[in-house]
Amino acid sequence: MATSCSSKKQKLNNSMVLPEMGFFCFDVLYCQLHQLEPPKPPNFSNDAFPLFVTWKIGKDMRLRGCIGTFNAMQLHTGLREYATTSAFKDSRFNPITRDEFSKLHVSVSILRNFEDGIDYLDWTIGLHGIRIEFHNEKGSKRTATYLPAVATEQGWDQIQTIDSLLHKGGYKGLITPDVRRSVKLTRYQSEEITVSYQDYMKNWYNLRC
């Protein structure tokens, strides 16, 4: 996952994030799983934005992979790349298999409105995603991010979210108020669409009727 992040605000209209982006991610993953030629370029916009692709599985929507980039990428290339990277290379999980394909949901998140936070509490739960930079107990610079929905889904307050994010980024020492205050925080917003395998198949049949 890229660690650089632009503070320049990105313009994004309401129609930018479309179900077709999720369908395209399913197409890409299907072709990869079955060793087929990649799908044709999609018809939606190819503007450049930072983006994330998240795979979840089952009725309880368990996380199965989530990777993205803070560097603006053209959507066709970025979704093609991160649909597979998040499915196969998220180090927290085993690669997604053919048997799991029909149980999947995919979310496409396009990131916008990057702003430097005044401190580690300068963000709003449910509205902002956050990216933090910090130095671990050995003095090495590390980064980590949570998308806007994570804190709400987990039921965390701001401090719990920051502490979890420090652990996610590899901080293994005792988290004190001074450690939290040393964090450099960037907040951002996202536009997100989620589609299920059932949505994908319904669209596939509609296109062929």
Mind explaining what this structure looks like?
This protein is an alpha+beta fold and 209 residues long. The chain folds into two domains: 111 residues, Glycoprotein, Type 4 Pilin, CATH 3.30.700; 77 residues, Hypothetical protein ph0010, domain 2 (Dna Ligase, domain 1). 30% of the residues lie in helices and 30% in strands. The protein contains six helices and six strands, in the order αββαβββαααβα. The chain has a six-stranded antiparallel β-sheet with strand order 2-1-3-6-4-5, with helices on both faces. The radius of gyration is 18 Å and the shape is elongated. The N and C termini lie far apart (39 Å).
Fill in the keyword field for this structure.
209 residues, alpha+beta, Glycoprotein, Type 4 Pilin, Dna Ligase, domain 1, 2 domains, 6-stranded antiparallel β-sheet, disordered N terminus, AMMECR1_N, AMMECR1, AMMECR1_domain, AMMECR1 domain-containing protein
Average the pLDDT over all residues and give the rounded result: 91
The CATH topology of the largest domain corresponds to: Glycoprotein, Type 4 Pilin
Radius of gyration: 18 Å
Largest beta sheet: what is the strand line-up?
2-1-3-6-4-5
Strand element count = 6
Question: How many distinct domains?
Answer: 2
Domain AMMECR1: 10-204
Protein name: AMMECR1 domain-containing protein
InterPro entries: AMMECR1 (IPR023473), AMMECR1_dom_sf (IPR036071), AMMECR1_domain (IPR002733), AMMECR1_N (IPR027485)
Pfam families: AMMECR1
